[in-house]
C-alpha cells in the first residue's frame, strides 16, 4: 500500500503533470496579450526576435521546433507572417492555431482605398487622414504582398500533435487571406481585447484547473485597457492637428483611433526602399503640409529619414511598432501603448 501511495505521489509530481502549457507566439505584441492572460501559468516561446521585423523574417530550425512543441500557436496573420503558413500546415497546427486577423469581431482597415473620413468606431478623428476605413470581419479577402518567404517551409513534424478544437470556430482559417488589409491589428486596443478573449478560452481549455485565474486576468485586462485607452486619447488630443510622416504605412489603427494627423509614409512596406522620385515627392509633402516630424523605426536604418529632413527644421523621432524595449509581463501591452504615446508626443509637441 505504501509503495502504491508513493508511486501515485511520484506521478502527481512528475514533470509532465507539472508542465505549463507551451504557447508559441509570432511577434512581441502577441506575446504581450498572451502574457496578460496566461501570467506565469504558461511558457511563452516567441518566434520573431523583439529586435527583428516580421516583414523580412526568415525562420530558423529552432523556430520550427517551437511550432512543433507548442500546445498552441498564436500569430497575427498570413499577410504579416507569411513565413508561418507552411510550418503550421506541416506541423498539423494550421487549424488549431489562433490567427488574430481571422478572429470574429476583429476590426480591420483597408489600406488599398483612400477616404476622407475615418471609420465609425473612431472618435474625434481628423479629415486630413487617408486610408482609414474600418471593417469588422468574420472572413476576409486574399492577403497582400508579403510573399517573399515561400522557401521557409517546416520540416516533418514530430510526435507532438496539434490540438483540433471544433469548439473554437472563431479561430478558424477558412477566410484568412487579406488583400490590401493593414495587418498591424495590435495597434487598436479593441483588437487586443478580441485576441485576449480567444487566448482566455484556449488557456481554459488547455489548463481547466486554472480556468478562474484566466477569466480573472481577462476581466482585469479589459478593465485596465479601457482606462488606459481613455488616458491616451486625452494626452494625444493636444497634438491631433500636428502633421507628421511615418517610416512605413503601419500605424493607421492607432492614428485613426486617436485622431492623429498622418501626412504620409516613406514606404508602404519597410523592406521596399524608396527611390529618388519617391524621396523628392516626400520632400515636397513635407514642405507643402508643414510637417513637423518624420519618424523612423528601430527595426530599420534611419538613413532615409536623415536624407528627407536634411536642410530643413523638421524634427526626427522614432516609433517602435513592436515595443522592442518593453518587458513581456502581464502589464506589457499597457506599457507598450504608453511608450508609443510618448514617442508621438516627444516629436509632435
Automatic annotation (TrEMBL):
Gene3D superfamilies: Nitrogenase molybdenum iron protein domain. This is High-affinity zinc uptake system protein ZnuA. The keyword Magnesium does not apply. It comes from the Bacteria. The lineage of its organism: Bacteria, Pseudomonadati, Pseudomonadota, Gammaproteobacteria, Oceanospirillales. SUPFAM superfamilies: Helical backbone' metal receptor. Residues 109-183 are annotated as: Disordered. Residues 110-143, 149-181 have a biased composition (Basic and acidic residues). Keywords: Ion transport, Signal, Transport, Zinc, Zinc transport. Residues 1-19 form the signal peptide. Belongs to the bacterial solute-binding protein 9 family. The keyword Ion transport applies. It holds the Pfam family ZnuA.
